[in-house]
Amino acid sequence: MSVFSFDQNTGFVSLVSHPIDSGFPVTSTQLTQMLEQSEFSEYEAVIANIGKLFAPTKNYQEVSLVVAKAVDASLVINIDEKNMVAEATLTTAKGGALLSMKGAQKALADAGVKKGISPRALDTFLGQQFEKPAGSSYSAIIAHGRNPKKGSDAKFVRLCSTAQDRVLSPQAKEGGKVDMKNLGAIITVKPGTPLMQRIAATPGEEGYTVFGDSISAKPGTDHQLQPFEGTKVDPNNPNMLIADCKGVPVALPRGMRVDDVLCFDNVDVSTGHVDFDGSVIITGDIKDGMRVKANGDITVLGFVESGAVESKSAVTIMLGAIGRKREGEEAFTCSITAQRTISIGYAQYCNIKSEQDLFIERQALHCDLSARRLIRVGKSNDPRGKIIGGNILDAMRIETGELGAPAGTKTRVFLAQLWFELRQKQTQITDFEKVLATKVTALQQAREKASKIAGAAQRQQFMNKITENEKHIKIRSAHIHRQKLLIKQKIVQLLASSRLKVNELMHPGVELKIAKDSKQFSRIYPPHLVKLTEGKITQTF
């Protein structure tokens, strides 16, 4: 016969009789051991009552015989500061009832959690009660809010090819050959030809907290189509840009323009120098000493031989550009400049400068190269071209297969040189802030003097002038502060983005400078990445 009895209604475990009356158990330790070995071992012992049972007292019959109790599983819900995550902590039952799905859902509801509850996570969480020891606690996230999703920015889909596209993807002829002269009708457009379609920005998706509160989404940045020369917005579709004249389409950010086109077989002494307001297509070469200047794209299907090419748009030279080796500090005989991207097959003894990106298909030999953003030598997906000798005067990023030559040819590379200009602007702003601070002090002194003027009208007149000057200085200070923050942001972005990626080998003789830190390399290096880390040039292999 058991010495314990269990009350189903209260969940209490009691001794059938007081140990003094039954003579068993004789100590609190023995009682605890008996309890641990019984069917009530997982129940929560009432230590205070057990101690009283064996305390010397005359009124022992008044002491409660309850020695343990059943404790149901309990759940505590914690919400993070942003109300985006609900974490549940479950304490397993001690002889009592397990926490049911219904009970868990009620606890969540009582805590105010309305959205983002994962039924699967909750079911898995509750299932762990069967594996955990009685009275132990464990936690898990069972509800997530949803962050708002920013809307997509307006997109601009080009609906026609440009001359540059056509040259880079020439039409195939029989036998697998390509016809570099047959540019076809793709190059030119007629009035009414669709050029670009605008896809409007989206509003984004609202988020919510676990309490069910909505979080507003930030809409995408919207931009309108920009009709440039030779184009217009379709009268029947405000999201469509169409040609307004016949000519060559040129892709621009958020719009296009249509240029007049001037075509040559070659540019030589028979044609003279070319200076054209539109686009120029040369199916042959630009000969020695000739200049081609255009406001539109310049496309050369052959070579540029010691010539000068200058475009306010993009330049594409299919085969390559070759100049003569210079003596001392004299300029190269071949120069190519563009305000947009330059694409060229091969370059030797050339000065090439792009305000955007510079793409060289095969190699650059003893050239001066400069680009505002990326210089890539080789194919776009995995550049394996070569940069041998010469100078890279400035760029943010460089990607190439090989840099330098096995013979140790001197090759100088400068990255992030805009840093010096930005630092100079920072210094100028600091100096100007000091000037403004001096003016503020002077105005404060002037205000003190003005307050002592005897005449009220005259005093007020001076005060008004001082107040007006103070407002002006305040506006200037706010403007300068915004400029300061913007320049600081640009510097951080510049240093974080500037890097050199070598996909095959870097040879001895390379001199590298990123911002103000410089390094010389005197041995061969395998594929690696070079960047600036905490102001120092570092290599990652």
Distance between the termini: 77 Å
What count of structural domains? 5
Oligomer: single chain
**Mean pLDDT level:** 90
- Number of DSSP E strands: 42
Structural class assignment: alpha/beta
Low-pLDDT segments: 178-186
Strand content: 25-35%
> Total helix count?
8
What sort of overall outline do the alpha carbons produce when their principal axes are compared?
Answer: elongated
Can you describe what's shown?
With 541 residues, the chain is α/β, with parallel strands linked by helices. It folds into five domains: 4-69, no CATH class; 74-144, no CATH class; 161-205 and 229-258, no CATH class; 260-356; 419-497. The protein contains eight helices and 42 strands. The strands form eight sheets. Strands 19, 21, 23, 24, 26, 27, 29, 31, 33, 34, 36, 38, 41 and 42 form a 14-stranded mixed beta sheet that branches. Strands 20-22-25-28-30-32-35-37-39-40 form a ten-stranded mixed beta sheet, with no helix packed on it. A four-stranded antiparallel beta sheet has the order 1-2-4-3. A hairpin with a 2-residue loop joins strand 39 (510-514) and strand 40. The radius of gyration is 40 Å and the shape is elongated. The chain starts with a strand and ends with a strand.
